[in-house]
Amino acid sequence: MSKGRIALVAALLAGLLPVLAPAPGRAEPLFDAQGYRMTQYRAPVPDTAPGARSIGIAEVQALAGQGALLLDVMGLRNYQLAPDGRFLTPEHRDSLPGAVWLPVVGWGRLEPWQQDYLDRNLARLTGGDKARQIVVFCKVDCWVSWNTLKRLHGAGYSRLYWFPGGADAWGDAGLPLQRVTPEPAAPGTRP
């Protein structure tokens, strides 16, 4: 490309930047029209989550003993998907013993593959039983778990529990944590 064309493209792009960039002082809204938290996921959370009962460590232990699904939804942003659906990431996660990690289901807006990932894994993990007890958590002050509970409640899951302290509270209480890996996406998934 000639120097003249490069200068022309640069000038055009510079003229578009004010249109493409957010206006000064206008941040993305915290919540979308459906009520999902869209940004600042690590911030103080309310005492309750949609359709769920908030619980502490003793109740998590009791529910785990009854066979409840322990669903860790701590977000994962630095990853690639292998052709077989495995998450390839330098990040690691220590979680509650027996927990299943679904790391891309709590964002405010899910891409179609992320929604499919959530739906497919929940159907498999619950055997299609929407009345199965599900304990959802991530870490302290984590809106990702709140968003996930809102999504599960909207999908008809009826026995939902929120452990807002998550793996942080569990570990702080001196309870053992276990290394988990993300449940794989469907083979061939392309984010």
UniProtKB/TrEMBL annotation:
Keywords recorded for this protein, A-Z: Signal
SUPFAM superfamilies referenced in this protein's UniProt entry, alphabetically: Rhodanese/Cell cycle control phosphatase
Signal peptide (UniProt feature, chain positions): 1-27
Keyword presence, Lipid biosynthesis: no
Origin superkingdom: Bacteria
Positions of the Rhodanese domain: 96-179
PROSITE patterns listed in its UniProt record: RHODANESE_3 (PS50206)
Alphabetical list of InterPro entries matching this protein: PQQ_CXXCW, Rhodanese-like_dom, Rhodanese-like_dom_sf
Protein's UniProt name: PQQ-dependent catabolism-associated CXXCW motif protein
